[in-house]
Amino acid sequence: MVTFAADTEFNGFLRFKDSLCIRGKFKGSIEAQGHLIVDKGAVVDADYISVSTIVAHGKVTASIRADDKVDLFPGAEVIGDITANRLRIADGVIFEGVCNMIDCDKEIEIFTKPNEEIKAALMRGAS
Questions:
Q1: Handedness of CA 32, 34, 103, 55 (dihedral sign)
Q2: Are 30 and 38 a contacting pair, CB within 8 Å?
Q3: Are 67 and 83 spatial neighbours (Cβ–Cβ below 8 Å)?
Q4: Domain boundaries, the chain
Q5: Could you read off the pLDDT of 85-101 as tens digits, one per residue?
Q6: CA-CA distances (angstroms) from residue 105 to 28, 85, 110, 114?
Q7: Pairwise CA distance, residues 74 & 51, whole Å
Q8: Residues with Cβ within 8 Å of residue 33, at least 6 apart in sequence
Q9: What are the residues facing 55 on neighbouring strands?
Q10: Torsion sign across C-alpha atoms 48, 43, 95, 101
Q11: Three-class SS state of 87
């Protein structure tokens, strides 16, 4: 994993395949196939972020697209719209924007089935 240290300030366009952890400040755009971690105390101000996964502990101002998931941990502040397959927002997160879910599994319909059927299906999948 590549890490931008806390004293690093970077402006421009980032493209990467693996994982990147930002602990400092970044301004620009991010387009990646890998995972992005915005560490506690980090500030990312981007036109857009397009990644597989983003984990935010710090401040992110951007339009975010994650092909897999977005994890927002306590203390994170995200200003901008999120488009993702999965989204997890912990208590203590500030989120201002619109969320759009993509590629949701159409096979699972938990709102119209009785609880017993859902539990049985989950148990079969865990075996």
A1: negative
A2: no
A3: no
A4: 2-126
A5: 999 999 999 999 999 99
A6: 33, 9, 11, 19
A7: 21
A8: 16, 17, 51, 52
A9: 37, 71
A10: positive
A11: strand
CA distances from 39 to 75, 76, 116 (A): 10, 9, 41
Q: What is the pLDDT along the chain (127 residues), one digit of tens a residue?
A: 888 899 999 999 999 999 999 999 999 999 999 999 999 999 999 999 999 999 999 999 999 999 999 999 999 999 999 999 999 999 999 999 999 998 755 555 556 666 677 677 777 765 5
**Contact assessment for residue 44 and residue 58, using Cβ atoms and an 8 Å cutoff:** yes
CA–CA dist 70, 76 (Å, integer): 12
